From TrEMBL, chains A, B, C, D:
<dbReference type="InterPro" id="IPR023314">
    <property type="entry name" value="Myo_inos_IolC-like_sf"/>
</dbReference>
<comment type="pathway">
    <text>Polyol metabolism; myo-inositol degradation into acetyl-CoA; acetyl-CoA from myo-inositol: step 5/7.</text>
</comment>
<dbReference type="InterPro" id="IPR030830">
    <property type="entry name" value="Myo_inos_IolC"/>
</dbReference>
<dbReference type="GO" id="GO:0019310">
    <property type="term" value="P:inositol catabolic process"/>
</dbReference>
<keyword id="KW-0547">Nucleotide-binding</keyword>
<dbReference type="InterPro" id="IPR011611">
    <property type="entry name" value="PfkB_dom"/>
</dbReference>
<dbReference type="InterPro" id="IPR029056">
    <property type="entry name" value="Ribokinase-like"/>
</dbReference>
<dbReference type="Pfam" id="PF00294">
    <property type="entry name" value="PfkB"/>
</dbReference>
<feature type="domain" description="Carbohydrate kinase PfkB">
    <location>
        <begin position="14"/>
        <end position="316"/>
    </location>
</feature>
<protein>
    <recommendedName>
        <fullName>5-dehydro-2-deoxygluconokinase</fullName>
        <ecNumber>2.7.1.92</ecNumber>
    </recommendedName>
</protein>
<dbReference type="InterPro" id="IPR050306">
    <property type="entry name" value="PfkB_Carbo_kinase"/>
</dbReference>
<dbReference type="InterPro" id="IPR022841">
    <property type="entry name" value="DKG_kinase_firmi"/>
</dbReference>
<keyword id="KW-0067">ATP-binding</keyword>
<keyword id="KW-0808">Transferase</keyword>
<dbReference type="GO" id="GO:0047590">
    <property type="term" value="F:5-dehydro-2-deoxygluconokinase activity"/>
</dbReference>
<comment type="function">
    <text>Catalyzes the phosphorylation of 5-dehydro-2-deoxy-D-gluconate (2-deoxy-5-keto-D-gluconate or DKG) to 6-phospho-5-dehydro-2-deoxy-D-gluconate (DKGP).</text>
</comment>
<keyword id="KW-0418">Kinase</keyword>
Amino acid sequence: MYHLDFRSDRSMDLVGIGRLCIDLNADQFNRPMEETTSFTKYVGGSPANIAIGAARLGLKSGFIGKVSDDQMGRFIQQYLKENNLDVSGLSLDDTGAVTGLAFTEIKSPEECSILMYRDNVADLKLDTSNVSEEYIRQTKALLISGTALAASPSREAVFLALDYAKKHGVVVFFDLDYRAYTWNNEQETAIYYNLIAEKCDVIIGTREEFDMMEQFESFRQDDHQTAQKWFHYAAEIVVIKHGEAGSIAYTKEGKSERSGIFKTKVLKTFGAGDAYASSFIYGLMNGWELNRAMEFGSASASIVISKHSCSEAMPTVEEIQTFLKTSRKE
Amino acid sequence: MYHLDFRSDRSMDLVGIGRLCIDLNADQFNRPMEETTSFTKYVGGSPANIAIGAARLGLKSGFIGKVSDDQMGRFIQQYLKENNLDVSGLSLDDTGAVTGLAFTEIKSPEECSILMYRDNVADLKLDTSNVSEEYIRQTKALLISGTALAASPSREAVFLALDYAKKHGVVVFFDLDYRAYTWNNEQETAIYYNLIAEKCDVIIGTREEFDMMEQFESFRQDDHQTAQKWFHYAAEIVVIKHGEAGSIAYTKEGKSERSGIFKTKVLKTFGAGDAYASSFIYGLMNGWELNRAMEFGSASASIVISKHSCSEAMPTVEEIQTFLKTSRKE
Amino acid sequence: MYHLDFRSDRSMDLVGIGRLCIDLNADQFNRPMEETTSFTKYVGGSPANIAIGAARLGLKSGFIGKVSDDQMGRFIQQYLKENNLDVSGLSLDDTGAVTGLAFTEIKSPEECSILMYRDNVADLKLDTSNVSEEYIRQTKALLISGTALAASPSREAVFLALDYAKKHGVVVFFDLDYRAYTWNNEQETAIYYNLIAEKCDVIIGTREEFDMMEQFESFRQDDHQTAQKWFHYAAEIVVIKHGEAGSIAYTKEGKSERSGIFKTKVLKTFGAGDAYASSFIYGLMNGWELNRAMEFGSASASIVISKHSCSEAMPTVEEIQTFLKTSRKE
Amino acid sequence: MYHLDFRSDRSMDLVGIGRLCIDLNADQFNRPMEETTSFTKYVGGSPANIAIGAARLGLKSGFIGKVSDDQMGRFIQQYLKENNLDVSGLSLDDTGAVTGLAFTEIKSPEECSILMYRDNVADLKLDTSNVSEEYIRQTKALLISGTALAASPSREAVFLALDYAKKHGVVVFFDLDYRAYTWNNEQETAIYYNLIAEKCDVIIGTREEFDMMEQFESFRQDDHQTAQKWFHYAAEIVVIKHGEAGSIAYTKEGKSERSGIFKTKVLKTFGAGDAYASSFIYGLMNGWELNRAMEFGSASASIVISKHSCSEAMPTVEEIQTFLKTSRKE
């Protein structure tokens, strides 16, 4: 059905690379941020959330990233450790960079926004000297998140990590996670996203993210063609997300599966994608059928969007199973 | 005793210029920031605190500054309005700048530190086109804070405001407020601090701040010589603060006054200088004797350091009077 | 012997992309530049020289590049036109960039150096919007020079041109032309050089340039392994130059050829590589045996290093043939 | 008539500070630069030209500046030495900066233009540590040129030099020399020009330069008001140049003198202002009447614009005297 070769001779399951930051979630919700008076601090950043989510599900997870040499950086490191992630791949910034911040505003379940602090952030200072070939050869899978490509030297560090992964038979997941504000322009973004995607085994993104990547192509907004493009390169699975309309996954073998979303009481929309990715990856790494992995991902997403945080809300296998028993798909 | 000519034909008392930002004060104190889980949001920034403090004391205050075009910027604007400051001198950034942040850590009353976010901040984007000659000619006094000199175009905006103030007989207070992290180096800092100080009527700073400004001089750490240097230019009063040892004020007329500090239950040290400045300025603008104004400033400082915030904690005249009746100086 | 498919249905033979600049060659030589009093102006830049050389040999050449909107930029454009290059691929900078300069110093034939002006240069402002898919599909071959990868947006423009070339069956030559001063560091350089090289048909560089590209590999300074690495990707021919010791070319088919250099009266060493590349490419595009193309390249190089300029000195086929009849290899 | 106190106890007459660069003058003139094929190299930069001119007239001149650590920088240093300037105030850049270049184009005597290379130039890297109080206290006069104010750290170095000059009774000449391309905007320029001008004894500039400086004033284009503005500060003499209409000089004592220009065969217009300044300063330092110094300056300007270079063409006293005998004013 799909062919992903997770090597059994590895000591880790999944290593994430890229953005590690702090979420400051408004304690008062259903109002504009101007009227909130306090914020609660969580570890955030898409690949960090996914790695934490994977660890919560029982995968042996690690992370390659750079943290600021201050209280925020130490908090992140400590939190990862406490959540059973291997932190030996973390580096400490020595340039005076800060930790990226994401202030969340929850005006209503439908109207959520993020105020980002991304100037001079430590995660984008990750450089090639921080990427250990030895570390990467010890893992079954590598998770790349697109935000890490937004600037040098982080971009080059990711290209090097990808090279090492290919060299040592590590399965590579690419979660597009495109955030316009950290990039110079869409053209630059598309160039580097495509260069990475060419070598990845599983590509996960929204329809809009794939559109951005296809700006130099003659075809447009066609899920099937999108998937076929990447099967000409290294991809085995391409997942295209359509928000509330669910997602569709294609395999190189020629199959496709659709998946809906679950009814739930939504607090905010943040974290849905990260929860989906961590649980979907968990399913694939356990050799599940594609549709079972997708359903597991959707359930995980539903759980996270009903809670206040992203990282801290990542569910266990038991929670997801319980949810699946009691919920129904839309 | 001292000669400051506050023109009676003005509609405002005090206009501040420069840094406007957000303080995020740890809700849990007497512990390292790594262990705090939430932060409360206040308006901050030294000249903003002083202007708010002055308004709390009943002065007609205004502010010339630039705020970010986001929730943080709108919160600041709203807070100033609610606190009776004139906000017609505020400009809105259109470059995508953010609001500066100050995360405070209160390990113990003696061990406080601040984690600053000062990259790409709106307050340093204030430019000459944002400074209205008409606005400045309507005030009795202008308050300049040194942090606004740290970068272009804010630095030039301050030089222009100072020129307008001199042209229209506005008394100028210069609160040194030197923060090393926003400057390239100490040499650059000293050059611009001195250029500003040459034209100011009242200069207020710590011994360390004056030391920085005197790095190209042949004399060192001598309060008397420091004061004399500025009396050769435009200064009428020079206040040099020595932390817990109190402060000393010199007048051009040749007098000097010492002032101690009050015993109080200290929560944190932040905000002491801003409270002192606002209340000291209030005293001078009411024509008080120097030592009475200094004592009023010290009392105000003592009140603020016993509370959680800086801006929000700024006392009224009644609070200070009550404090003075019940407290004793060290 | 080697397999390069130059499509016959194309209106151009060779299109260069990248650096276009001005050489200012000392009129007085065999002395330090401090003692030269005047300089003669020539068009320069490695890929420009190669494209001009190819045109001199009769190939239909074009160029994708960006020139400054000033006298220097107009001079370059005019010179290319006069030398029968198609200039419809040139763009005009509108950011106030300047033309890169290379002041040459000829202390002795063995001691030549270049003083570069590479700040804010127009050629590195080439962006993806300046790269026409239509233009690239009209050429048999594309020549990429490594210096164009040194900065954004030129780097992304080259990646896009390469993608279009692959899509339309255009043979891609990669002349490494590594110049340390335009790069941030060697790690960054290697990452992008390798990403380009993976997709090129013919790679030409010095041993030192390949060493730089192999810094993340376990093997070192082994011509054979270097060539094999690239044959695993798209390369058909890899040429490794060893200065005065001549060069060695490998083909994917498993053959290798060595070529020496010709005795000549050397004025300066500049331009040897560009002359070699243009004539070697000419040979390959005519379907010559590898060793004949290499000898033709060596002869061309010998002619150029005996003259004052690079671009202007590029020889015709007749000149090279005459040279070959009268010279002998070392 | 005017009061400038040149202290007799000094070992140097005039020290320039600021821009030192290279002029590359087209060898072929009366044509656009696109058609010139070679350039001759000269030392250039307004304050360098003035200091060289002053030395040519017999003044003991020195220079505070920074040169690049390459052949261009060494050429400048050597040329100054050979022209009897004291070079002990020169510093060597260690950041990889280049020497500024000015390519001159002489389309006709009336149509001259300059193509500037001012990115990353060594002269703007001069910093406060390169300014010696001891050096400045040894000179009678300091010449400040406005271009040195265009960027940090050169700007701060000039402010420090000015402070030392005031402290030690050094007469300060300010040649405005405003070049828009090195500045961010006109507002910034005016702020710093005014801060410098406030403390200078003699201010020399074109009407357009004074207009730029007066953008925050209520008056406009009025030579008399311009002069009066500066007499309220430290100025003794203000010279306003009106191109071919000659110039007007005002003194604090209330006098003004007009001066025309001489008929001459013009090759190019470059260098006229620098020649004027050096000879005018020479006259003032010899205690001449204002009109005699102005006429001497005009004659010097006429000589330089009839020759190919600026620095190299600076005349001796004898040349100017000969010129004055044989020429007539327009």
